[in-house]
Design brief:
alpha+beta; single chain; four-stranded antiparallel beta sheet; 15% strand; 114 residues
Length: 114
């Protein structure tokens, strides 16, 4: 008799445990603020990767022309050249509050526009 009740009791225990886990995850899940922070952090990491790839193109342009003025980037980089002069440039990615920029050459990605 004890064996015949073991399986249904196991199923009930698993169902109750699963229900309690889901309820706890809903109440302790990420808030909209931390989700927004995570999204901004992910966007900044992606922009840093895009900036690194775009800088190689800009440095090649500088080697060939002796200036950063006039340089453009193909859309594949998801980065725009906001400013470029004889010795420096500023790359920009994103839009709105998720905009990041990187002054160059040799700068670090920062939040906000150029």
């Amino acid at each position: 008799m004890g064996r015949s009740l073991a399986f249904p009791l196991l199923l009930i225990a698993l169902a109750v445990g699963g229900f309690l886990y889901v309820r706890q995850a809903q109440s302790a899940g990420p808030t909209s603020r931390t989700a927004t922070q995570a999204e901004n952090q992910a966007a900044a990491a992606a922009a840093a990767t895009d900036f690194a790839a775009a800088q190689a193109v800009l440095l090649s342009w500088f080697a060939a022309h002796g200036t950063f003025a006039g340089v453009t980037l193909p859309p594949v980089y998801a980065v725009t050249v906001a400013r470029a002069d004889a010795s420096s440039f500023c790359l920009q990615a994103g839009a709105g509050t998720a905009t990041t920029h990187e002054p160059g050459p040799g700068g670090q990605a920062q939040s906000g526009p150029c």
